[in-house]
Amino acid sequence: MEAGGPLPRVLSVQSHVVHGYVGNKCAVFPLQVLGLEVDPVHSVQFSNHTGYPSFAGDRFNGEQLRALAAGLEANGLLTHTHLLTGYIGSLSLLQAIADLCAMLRRHSPHLTYVCDPVLGDEGRLYVAREMVEAYAATIVPLASVLVPNQFEAEQLTGGKPIDSLAAAACACDELHARGPHTVVITSMTLPPTGPSGPAPEAGPSQAQAQGEAQAQAQGSGEYITLLASTTLPQRGGGGGGGTTRLVMRIERIRAYFTGTGDLFAALLLAWMQHHPGDLATAVDKAVGGLQAVLADTVRHCGPAALAAERTAEVCALRELRLIQCQGKLQDPPLRYRCEPLEL
């Protein structure tokens, strides 16, 4: 960002909760503390996230989004440098997102669209099948940066299984060919073979200091894999006429938290803005910030981090501690780093 120039401005269309942290509640604050202006639009407004025993609220539709966009345009306020989308609960709203992206690009031709295609996870769809088809046909071609999890990447590439780094790279190539210059597939569970990133060990003294529950949650001995792929030229010559691929292995935290994907997408957007042409650094810092928040939240949870029953009390304790971790969002500890992937 140029010193003294206008700040980047993000239009963020995601879910909203009154209490807790998912969707825009996970995106707006981190983007702001990292120096970006944010205009949030709430795709839903719920009392709390849907992992609680109950929730109440309303959903936004496409007609309402179009009305908001028209109001912004009438006042010359569509000056956004970025569009960020997360959970979109209806086909009507998804179609309006496509129209919104086109409208924004009329005003800002170089708009960056970061899309977290919230479709499902671990073999289960959260949305109707028609939403998968609409994302694949309409939204993927518009996106600049796509941030699916393993299951979502499979769904967007015809259901082909991603069971290796080679398969993940092929999925990225297919998605690149359809539009996005950058694809980051998160949270992949792959066989323990092939290149891996650094995996620091948690020694006994650390585990004792953190307490038994935290040690069990964070010292799982299991890993998830992230693959980042870009066709943009990279610092040091990567991506010049080709594709740069980066891989990272991250120790799995056994506890279940809501909003982690929303937070990661926002952090990735911010750090890509701060480090253009350096996807490795952007991913390192986005993962570092997310992992710092998770570690602090696990410490705060105590035994609730591993509780099997998701009572309202347990869910409340597991809410991400963004405010308490704002310093680490701005200056994230880099426990994990990307490594180049050559296939």
UniProtKB/TrEMBL annotation:
Residues 190-214 are annotated as: Disordered. It comes from the Eukaryota. Its EC number is 2.7.1.35. Residues 88-189 form the Pyridoxamine kinase/Phosphomethylpyrimidine kinase domain. Gene3D superfamilies: 3.40.1190.20. Residues 199-214 have a biased composition (Low complexity). Belongs to the pyridoxine kinase family. This is pyridoxal kinase.
